[in-house]
Amino acid sequence: MLPRNLCLPTLVGAALLALGANATAQDFPAHPITMVVPFPAGGPTDVIARVVAERMRVSLGQPVVIENATGAAGSIGVGRVARAPSDGYTLSFGTWSTHVVNAATLTLAYDTLGDFEPVALVALSPMVMTASKAFPAGNLKEAIAWLAANPDKAVIGTAGVGSSPHIAGMFFEKETGTRLRFVPYRGVGPAMQDMLAGRVDLMIDLVANALPQLRAGNVKAFAVLSKNRLGVAPDLPTVDEAGAPGLYVASWQAIWAPKGTPAAVIDKLNAAVVDSLADAQVVARLSDMAQDIPARNEQTPQALGALQRAEMAKWLPIVKTAAVKPD
Fold first, then answer.
1. Which of 43, 38, 110 is nearest to 76 (CA)?
2. Pairing of the two strands 33-37 and 90-95
């Protein structure tokens, strides 16, 4: 009987901890939640986070307050959440670059997979390949043929080394067997200005960034790097239709909680995100920003975890092979 008696305090302690966790989950949230955006206020990621967070308040009964913690390619803000208590009151609003690419380009004090609990995928941001009006190709097939015949001659502008346009361009090279001259800029705006001036031949960037110039007819668009056409630009062919099947590149935004956050709390947070993404006003605002809302079955914590693992398996070898280090 002695071993059983010795185990009794342990069992009682475990039971009390379980009861405490259940009570915490039932009461959640009892005060405002902080959602850390690792980029400056006013940028695309920040705006998307604010649109979703404002609607989450309705479901949760508490405000979701945005905190912008910028720097080091987003790793400062993400690291802040990795070190936060596992109670659901501090969340990470991150992207493909912060929660996938940074694992290959930076030395991080946290594990992008192991230190977080997936909450929900929020939005998908397709990318589009554009060209200057002077570029000697009228469609994607012709562009690939010209690039193959003229290696290292075409200039592709990026938003900096290690940025999503840079990595997308490397993926394009790999999949098409072409070679491009990469020129990094301090942001998309300066790169686009040089494309309009004829100093940049090609760009691969988020649809939201390229759309104003496309609508104005200032640049040519070859294809959206996605399986599906865009609601905001329905005439733009997909890469499958344009002659480069499977050349898919999309950024995305999602929400995570610190590792160890109770499952019941994750479920409440996920339900609030799902409600937000079903709201007509949220749908309209995200659509105006050229964001695709994931299908309902893609909005679960399990689906986000699977997506993140698949994206890391796809992109990390490409990034590491090229020895990319962000500016």
1. 38
2. parallel
* Residue whose tokens read 């019941």: 264
Torsion angle (degrees, nearest 10) of CA 55, 58, 61, 64: 10
pLDDT at 11 over 60: no
Query: How far, in Å, CA of 90 to CA of 181, rounded?
Result: 42
Average pLDDT over residues 261-287: 97
Helix spans in 106-181 (H): 140-149, 164-176
Cβ neighbours around 2 below 10 Å, total: 6
From residue 61, alpha-carbon distances to 25, 106, 325 in Å are 14, 38, 42
Q: How far is 302 from 50, CA to CA, in rounded Å?
A: 24
* Terminal-to-terminal C-alpha distance of the chain: 65
Give the other-Cβ count within 10 Å of 204's Cβ.
25
* Nearest by Cα to 69 from 105, 94, 102: 94
How far is the C-alpha of 291 from the C-alpha of 301, rounded, in Å?
Answer: 20
Q: pTM of the predicted model, to two decimals? A: 0.84
- Structure tokens belonging to residue 27: 């009461």
Sign of CA dihedral 42, 44, 48, 51: positive
The string over 227-252, giving b where at least 16 C-beta atoms fall within 10 Å of a residue's C-beta and e elsewhere, is eebbebbeebebbeebbbeebbbbbb
Q: Which of 324, 320, 325, 318 lies closest to 173 in space, CA to CA?
A: 318
CA distance 233 to 214: 9
Q: Which of 188, 167, 16 is nearest to 105 (CA)?
A: 167
What are the strands, taking DSSP E only, across 153-259? 155-158, 181-184, 202-206, 220-224, 250-258
User: Looking at residues 10-33, what average pLDDT do you find?
Assistant: 67
Q: Are 242 and 220 in contact (CB under 8 A)?
A: no
